[in-house]
# Entry
Amino acid sequence: MSSADVEEVSTVKSFDYGARETPENIVVLKDGTICTTLLAAGTVWRSTAGAERVVRQSDDVMAVGLASDADDRLYAAVRSGAETVAGIWRSDAAGRWARFAAAKASAGLNGITFDDEGTLFAADSVNGEILYLPRGHDDLRLWLADDRLKPTSFDDPVSGTGVNGIKFVDGRLYATNTAQATVLRIDVRAGRPSTITEVHSGVPADDFAFDASGNIYLAVHPENTVQRIAPDGAVTVLATADDGLDGPTAIAVVEEGLLVTNLGMLGTRHAPSLLRLSMKVGAPVLPRPKLSS
# Structure
């Protein structure tokens, strides 16, 4: 085990690499249902009381970021070359999906999050921008463009991925930039971006999660690690490739530890899975706003 903090690493679910089931992002609903986007398959997988079902499937899209609201409806960021498909899709209680917000086909949608008021934010990793859905509109629009959100080049998937994971916590928007290996904090004033602060550097993280103790848990797919940044800035590597990590891309904090999507991208073992790191954590911090129908 890479860290004494982690009691055990176990497999919650194994996916089928041949069926393009590469788990990229994760949300745990209020009732405990685990939901993951399967990037290459363009699907969303749920597990409820042992039952599993795909709630959206298409061969011409990538399902990337995932979020939920107070009514446990899911929101999935979908990349597609078709203008009629690209954007944010929302499910209803019956698992039927419809497009919630349109995006340009050129948008490299990635992580998504809500603020406490229900405004949706989306990372555009390709163009290095943060988009949002203004009230009364049905298409994503530019919220922030900044050099600190940009990729560094397009020579490989890591350098070509700018702003990646985003989370709204305590009135601020946090973001990772994989290419620049930074974690950023963006202050928000009257709904608009304000001061940008570099919280941490040197870790090319994908998506991440907070707990109520102020810890940030990072999925670092280029390094095959899960790392924790404590409130005092101390960094701990919690698990590595020796523990079975292979291209980890996202994390959910649960009562008994962390859930990690494995082989969202850049993995080499071709054994995609959902892993559990059993350890002591604070309560999860995840905005679940109440939205209109």
Q: What stands out?
A: The radius of gyration is 17 Å.
